[in-house]
Design a protein that fits this description.
- With 666 residues, this protein is α+β, with helices and mostly antiparallel strands.
- It is built from 20 helices and 22 strands.
- Helix 12 packs parallel to helix 13.
- The chain is globular.
- It starts with 8 loop residues before the first helix and ends in a 9-residue tail after the last helix.
């Protein structure tokens, strides 16, 4: 039966990308010189697995490239080559190249052969250099012994342990051990007191035959032992073997499909996948079983229902509600992934950029296991990377500047994720110079954003860095300074239903706090009444709800209505006017409620008739089912079956900032 290997490609790509992440993380953790052997082994294993998988699935270009990388790592783990900064950089570049090659194979686009050639040449140059400068002496592969050790089944009963022998041999030279597992019986036939294993050992180095015999002295009556010099084996291997006669006709098994190649690629037709802990699946199945039982119970109750069984019906409905909510939470939990998927990209980013900028930076990651919806995880990566780049370029000072300022020459960037009030908070902090208020003010005046005699509060001044095209960088660098970025960061975060806050202290650093909902499918909302209509306001955008008094209201000519809140004047939006709702009972601002909301870093007041209850709502796309409506981000279905629109707070804030004709309605 033909096996379609293409069905396994997606799994191969996912596992390969995970392997690359392991390699990258391991390489970044390597010290130069005598690196941790276990760390190098872990990197080597990941490279070896990728090479094998690539060859199996027909991605020969990837396999060939991985072979060079694997060879270099093999020399490092055997001590024939030191771990140098040059080698680590070449290996990191090779990891990037492999990632691009896999991406090309996955998407079906051609491989960048020029880039592959550059990275391959770098690896080959290192390999050609040999073990120059190695800290460990090169090993002569022909010097030593081959030992075939085949214990009798009664070895264990004699009180001997092969591990003791292996340890003794390892003390004589470098030992390689391969186990022969072909004699292992099935589990039913296995006797744990019998030995079914045999080993082939290669002992490299100048080791006397007598030392080997001494190591096996206690087991010579309980094993078959063959010891030969490695040089003898090498001589035998060098003897040419005449080729076997070719078969009359090469037979190509019909079951083997033509391999996919990196050159032709394979298109990823799937919509992405997610790995789920089996415990979550088990919980889901159990809840489905509970639902079926409850549904069956209610069905039987309905067939024979009488009023004296009302209490039983109410109990059954309550049980149905509990199971439904638990099922909803379990389903949503399947899409939750730890934010380490995003955080794991940062060490490489910090390594590369700090090296280019000549800065010393320590990156600390906290809360890596904090879980977020898969969609949010995928879309928050770019804003986070931009913030970290900004910390590196603008926040952290050069080592000399830090020492002059009385700080350590190594800057600190901290990424921290944690839950707060049903949302997730991601903080990006640095201990650098902080924002330069005078420079921001001068730049704002230069761009016409502020009057020269203005005295904006610090929060409003710092918020200007989110203005499109605003940059205080004196020079455009490879990292930043082109006046784009922070406005896009804020826009992307708000597109996820979140918001970003900034705190900064001159000379002590800055902290950007991103507040995000756990998922984009369900929203924690506040229902509000406007006339006969019900709207949903995202809880994350609501600051407070207040009742107005006349003394707090103001009307500015050409600017609309405002109210004063703790010394700050905020614009007012009457929702019944924006959406053309008729029949609202609150016409005077003092008759209804004002919901203070925040979007795009600015606040405004939404005038509504009444604030009702808080509830979770399932978000439905309005654009897919109707069309885009300004000020509305989606819709949902309430418990009574009616449709409620979900307010787009940033969109409404934009409306509030537009000049509107004054309409006096006091």
């Amino acid at each position: 039966m033909a096996i379609d290997l293409a069905q396994f490609h997606q799994v191969f790509f996912e596992e390969s990308l995970e392997g690359l992440a392991i390699m990258e993380s391991g390489l970044l953790g390597l010290g130069t010189g005598g690196a941790d052997p276990e760390a190098i082994n872990a990197i080597f294993r990941a490279a070896h697995s990728m090479k094998g998988g690539s060859a199996t699935f027909g991605f020969t270009a990837v396999a060939d490239f991985a072979h060079h990388l694997e060879t270099l790592l093999d020399e490092m783990r055997e001590g024939r080559r030191p771990v140098t900064a040059q080698a680590v950089e070449a290996l990191l570049g090779a990891v990037d190249c492999l990632r691009d090659m896999l991406g090309a194979s996955q998407s079906g686009r051609p491989v960048d052969r020029a880039a592959v050639a550059i990275h391959q040449a770098a690896l080959e140059r290192l390999l050609a250099d040999g073990a120059v400068g190695a800290t460990a002496p090169a090993i002569d592969r022909d010097e030593g012994w081959q030992i075939v050790f085949s214990p009798h089944r009664d070895l264990f009963r004699s009180g001997n342990d092969p591990v003791r022998i292996f340890r003794e041999l390892a003390g004589l030279g470098r030992l390689e051990v391969d186990a022969e597992l072909g004699f292992l019986p099935s589990a039913d036939e296995l006797d744990i007191e019998d030995c079914y294993l045999a080993w082939e050992l290669k002992l490299y180095g100048k080791v006397a035959r007598a030392d080997i015999d001494e190591a096996f002295a206690w087991v010579e009556d309980h094993c078959d032992l063959a010891v030969r010099p490695l040089a003898e084996l090498a001589a035998l291997a060098a003897v040419p073997v005449p080729p076997e006669a070719a078969p009359a006709a090469a037979v190509q098994p019909a079951s083997v499909p033509p391999p996919a190649t990196a050159e032709t690629g394979t298109k990823n037709v799937g919509g992405g996948s997610i790995r789920v802990d089996t415990a979550k699946i088990d919980q889901l199945i159990n809840l489905c079983g509970e639902l079926v039982i409850t549904q069956s119970m209610l069905g039987l109750l309905g067939e024979t229902f009488t009023m004296d069984r009302l209490e039983q019906l109410q109990s059954g409905l309550a049980q149905l509600e509990r199971h439904t909510r638990a099922l909803q939470e379990s389903v949503m939990n399947i899409r939750m992934l730890p934010i380490s998927f995003v955080f794991s990209r940062m060490p490489r980013l910090v390594h590369d950029i700090s090296g280019k900028l000549g800065k010393r930076v320590e990156l600390r990651l906290m809360g890596e296991q904090t879980e977020l919806d898969k969609t949010v995880i995928e879309q928050i990566a770019d804003p986070l990377m931009h913030l970290v780049r900004n910390c590196l370029d603008h926040g952290i000072e050069s080592p000399h500047e830090r020492v002059v300022a009385g700080k350590s020459d190594t800057g600190l960037i901290l990424l921290n994720a944690y839950h707060r009030g049903g949302n997730i908070v991601i903080e990006v902090s640095d201990d650098g110079r902080g924002l330069d208020a005078p420079r921001i003010f001068a730049k704002a005046v230069e761009r016409g954003l502020l009057e020269p005699h203005a005295h904006p509060p610090p929060a409003q001044l710092y918020d200007l860095i989110f203005h499109p095209g605003f940059s205080t960088a004196e020079q455009v660098t490879e990292v930043s300074g082109r006046g784009v970025g922070m406005d896009v960061v804020r826009r992307n975060i708000e597109a996820l239903g979140g918001r970003i806050e900034l705190k900064t202290q001159p000379g002590r650093g800055s902290t950007f706090s991103i507040h995000l909902p756990l998922t984009l499918a369900i929203l924690d909302g506040q229902t509000v009444a406007v006339g006969k209509e019900i709207y949903i306001a995202p809880l994350v955008s609501i600051i407070e709800s207040i009742s107005l008094t006349e003394d707090k209201l103001n009307t500015f000519t050409g600017k609309g209505e405002t109210f004063r809140l703790r010394g700050e004047y905020l614009p007012i939006i009457r929702l019944h006017e924006v959406f053309g709702v008729e029949g609202g009972h609150a016409v005077k601002l003092t008759d209804g409620l004002l919901m203070v909301v925040e979007g795009q870093g600015l606040k405004c007041g939404l005038f509504v008739d009444n604030v009702l209850s808080q509830q979770q709502v399932v978000i439905k796309s309005l654009e897919e089912n109707y069309r885009r409506v300004e000020g509305i981000s989606g819709a949902t279905i309430l418990g009574d079956g009616s449709v409620a629109l979900i307010l787009d707070i940033p969109g409404l804030v934009r409306l509030a900032r537009q000049e509107r004709p004054v309409q006096t309605r006091h």
